Automatic annotation (TrEMBL):
Keyword match Oxidoreductase: yes
Keyword Transit peptide (UniProt): no
Keywords carried by this UniProt record: Oxidoreductase
Gene3D superfamilies membership: 3.40.50.360
Residue runs in coiled coils: none
Domain spans labelled Flavodoxin-like fold: 5-184
UniProt cross-references to InterPro entries, sorted A to Z: Flavodoxin_fold, Flavoprotein-like_sf, NAD(P)H_dehydrogenase_qn
Membrane-crossing residue ranges in chain numbering: none
Family of this protein: Belongs to the NAD(P)H dehydrogenase (quinone) family.
UniProt xrefs under Pfam families: Flavodoxin_2
Record SUPFAM superfamilies: Flavoproteins (SSF52218)
Name used for this protein in its record: NAD(P)H-dependent oxidoreductase
Length: 215
């Protein structure tokens, strides 16, 4: 039986955040429950530069194409390796931080994450078989976030990115009104990630070990 592989992405450029504590609590619990875990920390690891050319948002198709930047190639390998992806991030301006958006733009490449078909308006979802979880912190109350922002951050990441590429989102956790919460509340949230990590480690279905999706 294959061991489930979980990629944890901390999508904030600010080190030492609540999201870091949540993510590490989740990752430690998942490892303890038997999963392999890789961690991408966008406060520590390289954030790819904004794409400046079309070939920076697609997988190289031939040997003559410009190769991926080393850090992008490593992140593509992380996603390809994973059976389950977990995103931790704060809501900023009704969405997620630019560091996470740029990471997605450079890593969820055409030819790797999805591929448009030659005719018609359909596309192939190349990351099918993987699952994901989203954990978002925010200062706004849940009702305000739903009414004023239409849950834009979650809808964008879940619907327009992950599910577009074939990744099934198995759960969304919103931790609200962070600025007004007590230390005890934050510790309770951090402790709650232990249950999520252990649950995912036991529930994630490991995919057959194959090669990188071809362009």
């Amino acid at each position: 039986m294959n061991t489930p592989r979980i990629l944890v992405v901390i999508g904030t450029p600010l080190a030492g955040s609540l999201n870091h504590a949540l993510a590490h609590s989740y990752a430690d619990a998942a490892r303890a429950a038997g999963a392999e875990v890789r961690l991408v920390d966008l406060a520590r690891d390289a954030v790819p530069g904004h794409p400046a050319e079309r070939n920076e948002v697609r997988l190289p198709r031939t040997d003559s194409d410009v190769p991926l930047a080393p850090e992008v190639a490593a992140y593509v390998d992380d996603v390809d390796w994973a059976d389950h992806l977990v995103f931790f991030f704060p809501q900023w301006w009704g969405s997620y931080p630019a560091a996470l958006k740029t990471w997605i733009d450079r890593v969820f490449l055409s030819g790797f994450a999805y591929r448009y078909r030659p005719a018609g308006r359909l596309w192939d979802k190349l990351l099918t078989g993987r699952s994901a979880r989203i954990v978002m912190t925010m200062d706004s109350p849940p009702l305000w976030n739903a009414w004023a922002y239409r849950n834009a951050a979650i809808r964008s990441l879940r619907n327009a990115t992950l599910e577009f590429c074939g990744i099934r989102v198995r759960g969304v956790t919103r931790l609200a009104e962070v600025r007004h919460r007590s230390d005890a509340d934050r510790e309770r949230w951090i402790g709650g990630m232990v249950s999520l990590g252990a649950t995912d480690a036991g529930a994630v279905v490991a995919r057959p070990r194959d090669e990188l999706v071809p362009a």
